[in-house]
Every structure is written in C-alpha cells, then in structure tokens.
Amino acid sequence: MLRFAARRLLYAVVVLWLVSTLVFAFLHLSPVPVERVLGGPRATADTLAQIRGNLGLDRPVLVQYWWFCGRLLRGDLGDSYVNGTSVTALIAARLPTTAWLIAGGAVLWLAAGVALGALSAARARGPCDRAATVFVLAGLSTPPFVLALGLLYLFASGPGGGGGHLFEAGPPLQEHFLRRMTLPWIALAFLMAAAYTRLTRGALLDVLGEDYMRTARAKGLPEHRVLVRHGLRAALTPVVTQFGVDLGALAGSTIVTEKVFGLQGVGQLVQQSIAAGDTPVIIGVTLLVTLLVIVANLAVDVGYAVLDPRVRLLPP
Question: Which structural domains are found in the chain, ordered by start?
Fold first, then answer.
C-alpha cells in the first residue's frame, strides 16, 4: 500500500507540473495581452510598458516560467494582477462557500441516484422503473441554469435570493444557512442525481445476473440482503469512479449555480478573473481543481478494495 501511495503521489506531482506548464503557456500565448486588458482600450504605449514592467512581463518567457515554478515549489501562487492580493488568500476566502455547495449537493445526488437506481433495477420494467426513467430523462434534459432560475422564481423570498456572502447570516448548520443553501444544493444535484440513477441501474442489472447472486438466493438469503450486501456493493464500483471524478471537477464548474443564487465562491472568482484577465488567479484555481481531481481519484482507487474484495492494488 505504501508503494502504491508513493507511486500515485509521484504521478500527481508530474500531472500538476504538466497542467501548470500548459496553463502558463496557453495564457501567455493569448492574443489579448494582459497589459491591454488591465490598462483598457485607451491606455498609451508608455502606460502599457509600465504595466508590463510592474508585472514582470517584460522579462523573457523562460525567465517568467522559472520564477513561476520557483513560486509554486514554495507554495506561492503569486499575487492578483487586479488588486495585488495573494492568490492563495483569494481562493481561501472563496473555497468554503464552494466546498459547502459541493458537499451538500454531493450528498443529495449520491443518495438519490443510488437509491433510485437500486430501486429501479430491483423492480425492472415496473412502475418504479418507469418513474425513474422519466426522472432520468427530465434531469438530463434540463439545463442547470433553467432549473436554478425556476427554483429561484418559485421559492426565493426576494429578488436574487438575497445575494451576498454565504456566511453573512452566521455560521454553517444554522437555520438560515440551511434555508439559503437548500435551493443551490437541489439545483446542483438534480442533473447529477439523474446521471447516477442511470449509472447505478445499469451496473446493478449487470451484477444481478452473476452466478454468485443466484447462489446467494439459493442459500435462502432474504432478497433485500442479496440486493444490498452482495449486489449493490459490487455495482457501486463504477459509481464510485464517477463520483470521484465529478467531486473534484465540480470545484471549478459551479459558476452557473453560484451566479444565480449569489454565492461568492470559486466559480464566481474564476468568472471574474477571466473577464479581468487575471492570469495568476486563473492558474491558481486550475491547479486547485487538478489537485482535487487527483486526490479524489486516489481515494477512489483505495475505495475499490473496500467495495470489492476481488480488486487488489497491485503494481503495474
């Protein structure tokens, strides 16, 4: 296990380096210079040159990249081009909002998706299966922003859902916090729950036809125990795989939900940074999302052995 963890850690470092290099290259090869974005369309040549000098953009690209790698090794993501604030501080201030949004939505979509998928597979071609199919089609066909706006229109008490910062009204788990986060959680989880319902149903139907499932029934085990302990446990392997990928990737893809409900999270930070051409913040968020995806996939690999004893973490 230690060798496996060390090998995956080495892979993670290589992936982070590759991603950071690609993002650095793409953003510095942008057709719109950063100094033009910050200086505005009416900035003079002297002003643009001064901006480039202040940001260190007048240095050779290799020198900029060397400085960039050196800061990353020290854990320094640099400072924002717009306000000079540390990128780490900006992300740290927005991350709790996005973390609560993703955590609550993940609990909803995983619980609803697995429960509906298992019920649909256990009652295949029955009324429950047909109802689950309708739910899946509705969930996959509804754009997230349409659902978010619809929920806001039907249930919000005021325009914009009472925007502002998530923690203005008090700490998490208080009544106002839960009331404020319910609609964003539902909007984020609806599409994902539909996808997980379909994934769980397909995986469980495949498992129910295995020989060991018939053996368990032949031994006289109750059907619910056969379904949950033997069938669902093996069927959750692809679900866990997808869950790990989605959980990490959602850190940078909650822009629509945060925008509609006025949540100042990482998604909003990405949108504002792209509009302002704030390269260090974009790179910082990209590296954060990459790290979360790597950690999630490592947790998925370890979870395989827990869910399915046939899986062994052997070296390649």
Answer: 2-73 (no CATH), 88-307 (1.10.3720.10)
Q: Which two tokens stand for residue 32?
A: 């719109």
Give the span between the Cα atoms of 12 and 296, in whole angstroms.
11
**Residue 129 DSSP class:** H
Q: Are 282 and 269 in contact (CB under 8 A)?
A: no
157 close to 182: Cβ distance less than 8 angstroms: no
Question: What Cα–Cα distance (Å) separates residue 222 from each residue in 213, 218, 227, 230?
Answer: 12, 10, 9, 11
Closest C-alpha among 285, 248, 302 to residue 90: 285
pLDDT tens track for 220-270: 777 777 777 777 777 887 888 788 778 766 766 688 888 888 888 888 888
Q: Is 86 in a helix, a strand, or coil?
A: strand
Nearest to 186 by CA among 219, 152, 138, 222: 152
- Taking the model in full, what pTM does it have? 0.74
- Give Cα 316 to chain centroid, integer Å: 28
